[in-house]
Structure formats: structure tokens, C-alpha cells
Amino acid sequence: MAKAADIGSKRLINLAPDAWVQWVTQLPEVVAKEILGSEFHWISRETDVLVKAYSATHGDFLVLNQLQLRYTTQMPLRMRAYTALAQERYRLPTYPVLINILPPSSSLTIVSSYEQEFLGLRAIQDYRTINLWEIDAEIVFEQPLPSLLPFVPILRGGGEVSVVQRALQALRADAQLNELESLLAFFASFVLDTPLVQQIMRWDMAILRESPWYHEIEQKGIQEGARRQLIRVLEQRFGEISHEVEVRVEGKNVEQLEILMDSAIAVNSLDEFVQILSR
To answer: Half-sphere exposure of 122 toward its Cβ, with a 13 Å CA cutoff?
Structure first.
């Protein structure tokens, strides 16, 4: 049996780890020493990558990388929890970075810190946020940053056919990068017509399915469909729905949305539904 292609976050960062940690920390003297285990009991995802780095100024420290397909309201808490677990396990200062791949819905505001106050006690965790759609595609070629080559189509200025073809040529010029062509095609499909993408590059679904983002896209599509259906039922029954209600159902998973759909059909008023939503 052929070995499955690895096009996950760890593989991408490992293409050029020094260039990656220099980019996310904005410290040109930093070097990557090794990629560490990132399995912390109840937190273990293919998109989490922990890198041990070093600089003459700061010594050894951890760079915590969270590559997120789309930002959700759960991310600040996840960044707080993951940062604390990494620092406890390795006993090193930790620099957390959240890399958002695709823009979230307009109802969400991306934040760069977790803050909570309860009974006079405060919990605060800052982290750096990088939104790929705000990154200039030229940076990938100039620095260079081979880890970002598959994401070129969704970077700023990267949606042009000529720019996508430059990224494709860079992947095909290196035997170690060939397997990333399907991932490049995947993200190109967000900005170019699918027939055009299939015409200029390979679209190997067997390889693409190895990507954690492919599975997340599938799940997000089902989740978004369920959310829209719930909102539509509420609007049909009770008229215009407030922005607050839409935001509160945004982060619900498919199972939760199905339960809320049953409630939306059964309740007699929107206020009654909001009470159920608050439980």
C-alpha cells in the first residue's frame, strides 16, 4: 500500500522551520531547533504545531502555531488552554500564534487575546494573530516561505492566474513539494473557477483528503447549512431575527444545531427559544 501523503500543518512548517519561526515571531535571528509533540490529553489536533526555537536574546522558547481554517469564538479559550499546557509540559516561555486561513463570517470579530474575570480574579492570554488574506502573496516568493506556497491563491494579490502559476512552478521545481500541488489546487478553487484550476494543475483527491483542512471544509459546510436552516425557520416563524441570536448560534456544532431546530419548531415565541439557547 502506498504511503499516505502528509500535507498537514506539521509537514508544511517542517519545509523551512527557520523561515517559518522568523516570520511568525518577526525576529530575524530566531532559529527552529525541533518540532515537539503537541498531544495534551484533550487537546490534540492536526493543525496544532509546537516548535522549540532559540534566539541569542531570548534563549530557548516555544512557538505555538495554531492554523485555523476559519476563526471561531472558541479560539481565544483554545489559545489560552493550549499555551498553558505547552508551557507546563516543556517549562519554557511560549509565544502563541493563531494563523487564520480563510475570513470568518461578517458577524464575527477576530480578537488577539483571551480575557475573563470571575469573582474578582482575572485570566488573560495574549497571542499573535495572522490573517492570511491580509498577507501579501509576494512575501512567499521573496523571503521565501515555501510553507505558504499552497495558500498563495487566498493571500492578498494571490488570486491572479499568473501568481497561482508561479506558486505551481515553485512546487513542481522541488521534488519534496510535489505532493502539495493538490492543496494549492484546493485553495485556488476558492478564487478561480474549478475547471480552470483543473486545467492548470493536478487535482488529486486521494492526496487532498489527507489534508485536515479538507475534512474541516466538509464539516463546516454541513454545519453552515444546518445553521442557515435554523435561522430560516426562526425567521419564518417569528420574523426578523436579531444579530445577537445569529451570533449565539454561530459556534454551535451540527448536533447542537439539530437540537435547536427541534426547539425552534416547538416553541411558541422567540423569547422562549432564546431562553433555551441560554441554557
So the answer is: 5
